[in-house]
Structure formats: structure tokens, C-alpha cells
Amino acid sequence: MKMKISALTAFLRNYGHRLKFIGELLLLLVLLIFIVNLNFEVNWANLWSHEHSNVAGWKHYPYNPPGTEITFPRDEGLHPSNTTEWQIFYINLTGDNACNYSLITSYDRYGTFTNMFITLLNYTSGERYTAEMTGVVYGEEYFLNFMFKPFKYTQTCTHRLYQIPDKPFTYFFSHTSITDDGKKIQFSFTMDSRKPPMIIGGNGIVEMGGGGYSYYYSLTHLSTEGVLQIDKEIVNVRGVGWFDHQWGNYKPKDGWEWFCAKLNGDIEIMASHFINSTTGRTYNPFLYIYFPEHYIPTSNISIIPLAYWRPAADSPEVYAMGWTLISEEYGLNITIEPVIRSQMVLEGIWWEGGCSVHGQIGGRVVQGHGAAELFRTRTSEISPTPLSHYKTPHG
Questions:
Q1: Same domain for 341 and 235
Q2: Same domain, residue pair 314 and 264
Q3: For the segment 297-313, what is each residue's pLDDT rounded down to a tens digit?
Q4: Residue at 55 is within a domain
Q5: Is 56 among the domain residues?
Q6: Is residue 117 part of a domain?
Q7: Would you place residue 31 in the very low, low, confident or very high pLDDT band (cuts 50, 70, 90)?
Q8: Could you tell me if 307 and 355 lie in one domain?
Q9: Pair 306, 322: CB distance under 8 Å
Q10: Per the domain annotation, does 54 fall within a domain?
Q11: Residue 314 — φ and ψ, nearest 5°?
Q12: Are residues 258 and 236 in the same domain?
């Protein structure tokens, strides 16, 4: 025993200072980990705050966001020199009749021909109204002021969108058409952007499914109010809209799944990926989270289908009907669920519809409404999971 104690004493005499040094290093390491975690929490606090804007003085013309060629109001206008141009609104509304609505309007120009559709979904009752037509768009190149006219004289449609003079990023939007089942849909809104434009791709240019490149920006928070008429019922409404605008010389070869959502806490999200039409492999995923004053892009996003739906018994294509979005980088775990399954547009080429959204971002519970756009996505032969029947609130 004495020999062991003597050996221990000699060891401590020779190496004790080194053990002390190692202990101090370990203590320093623990302090550094604590500081890093503390700063991470502070960064989250900044993201949720309304007091730390990284964009100042944006609501004026001309406005050129840093790092992009996109300039406002020039690029709010039409781009007739490009072969393709898309403009689409997703608007969630609450009426004075206690009903909630999802309104989607889109024009997709390919060359000189433009496809126009409108779909209105009553979340409360599950009723859905659609109108589709082909025509031509007339408007200005350097500021937003255009109207759509259908080719067929039998189709009733007036569609007008313009930027209100002397009020940057504020718009007037009106539409009248007869739905596929003979009902009149009419609305007139004023829309005021409460957040700076979100420039997609960092520089405003994105690759489009192996078929070229597109300029791309979004207005994610358009405060909206006005009047909505469904046949003979007239409703005062207000809510929040989302506007997507793309243009370029592109023609996508593959399909995609795309999502946007307005959530509590003044947050919007957008996510998407392309789907190879031959193999079913997904690629080029991206996620944008727009906090009260910041938006953050990342490619660290998984979009996981929950179930599938076939539009008809003999349909060669199936569509995912429910998704989980996961980004460990930002603590995001969100479920997106279609309000109803049958929301096809443009003669069954696209699925475009309203969705409910719930989950967590950065440890906070979030929920709200959104939209999904599915184009030429999958066939039964390449679906990663078996077809299943997805239950929605209205079947």
C-alpha cells in the first residue's frame, strides 16, 4: 500500500501541472459551447423580432434589391421579349359571412398564348368554383398595368391588375368571369405589400427543371381587402395574399411540387423540388422562411409525401396528397394537408389548391393556410410508396 501511495505522489509531483492545464482546457471548452449556444438563441430571438430588419427603405421606386438585376417597378411589368412568363396569386380571405376562402388566379404565357384560370375554395363549406380560358394579355413593359382578354367571344372575363400610382408596392386587382358550372365570380381588391420582395435563388435566377432559367421574385405578404361576389352573394373580405412572378426563356422538362404558406407569428414559408419525369428522383430542393423582418434560404429541406391520389381510375398520373417538410437546420417540421383532393386545373394538367398547414419552426408551434402546386409529378410505376386514400376535411 505504501508503495502505491508513493507512486501516486510521485505521479502527481511530475504531472500534476499538466492535469491542471487539461482541466482548464476542458473548462474553457465548456464555456465556449455555452457561449455558442447562447448566441444561437440570440439569433433565433432576432429572427422572430420585428426590430432587426436587414432591408431598410425598400418601399419606394425605383427599388433594386442587392445582388440581383431585378428592379421595381420595371420588372413588375410584362416581359414580352421572353418566351415564358407566369404570374400567380394565392390569397387567403375571411368574409363578413364568417366563411374562409382560398382564391388562386394565374396567367401562364407561352409565346403569344396565355392560359388563365381562377379557382375559389370555400374552406368552411368545401365548395369549389373554377374558370379556365385561353387568351391574350395586354399591358405595359416597365410597370404593372395589364388586362387579360379571352379568345372565345362566348367566354365572359374581365381581368385587370395594376400598380396604384404614387403608392409603391400597392395594387388594384379586379376580375369577373363565369365558372365552369355557370356561376358568376367577381372581386375587386386593394393589395399592399407589407414586406420587401423575396428574391428567389439569391440573385433572382433559378433553374427550371432541366428546361432553362427563370427570373423569379415573390411578394409574400400582401394585405388584401375588398369585395367578393359568388353568384348573387356579395361578401366583404380581407386577408393576406402571396404573389409569384417568373419570366425567362424556359420550358421545364420535369415536374415539380411547390408550396407556400402564411403562418401565425408573421411568418411565410415557400418550399419546392423538381421530380424527374423518368426516374421519379427528386432534385433541386429549396426552402425559404420569411420571418417578420428577414428571409432565409436553404437547400437543407426534405419534402416527404404522406399519401397519393389518382384523379381518375384510368389516370396514368398520381399526386401526393399530404406532405411533411423537414429542415433540421432551422428546426422546421411542418405538415401540409389539402383541404380537398380534387383541385385539378387547366384540363387536368395541374393540381393547384388550398391547404392547411401546422407544425413547428425553431421550437415554436405554427399553423395557418397555404397552397400547393403540383405539375406532372409522378406515375404509379415510380411512386415511392403505395397509393392510399388520404382523408381530407371535405373528402
A1: no
A2: yes
A3: 999 999 999 988 888 77
A4: no
A5: no
A6: yes
A7: low
A8: yes
A9: yes
A10: no
A11: -100, 10
A12: no
Residue 242: half-sphere exposure toward Cβ, Cα within 13 Å: 25
- Taking the CB of residue 139, how many other CB atoms lie within 10 A of it? 16
> Which residues contact residue 38 at a Cβ distance below 8 angstroms, ignoring those fewer than 6 apart?
none
Nearest-angstrom CA–CA distance, 117 and 164 = 24
Range(s) of the domain holding residue 265: 254-395
**Across all residues in the chain, what is the average pLDDT?**
84
Q: Do residues 156 and 258 share a domain? A: no
**Which CATH number fits the domain that encloses residue 361?**
2.40.370.10
| Three cell numbers written together for 114 | 396565355
* Residues 145-177: tens digit of each pLDDT: 999 988 876 677 889 999 999 999 999 999 999
Tell me: pLDDT of 41 over 50: no
Number of domains in the chain: 3
Tens digit of each residue's pLDDT (9 = 90 or more) over 64-108: 999 999 999 999 999 999 999 999 999 999 999 999 999 999 989
The C-alpha cell 381588391 sits at: 189
First to last CA, the chain: 81
User: Do the beta carbons of residue 124 and residue 98 sit within 8 Å?
Assistant: yes
**For 280-289, which contacts have Cβ atoms below 8 Å and span 24 or more sequence positions?**
280/378, 280/379, 280/382, 280/383, 280/384, 284/207, 284/209, 286/200, 287/325, 287/327, 287/330, 287/332, 288/198, 288/200, 289/330, 289/332, 289/361
Q: Both 38 and 113 in a single domain?
A: no
Q: Quick one: cell of 113?
A: 398564348
d(CA 29, CA 148): 64
Set of cell numbers at residue 253:
422538362
376 and 286 within one domain = yes
C-alpha neighbours within 13 Å on the C-beta side of residue 68: 21
pLDDT score for 293: 85
Query: Residues 75, 112: one domain?
Result: yes
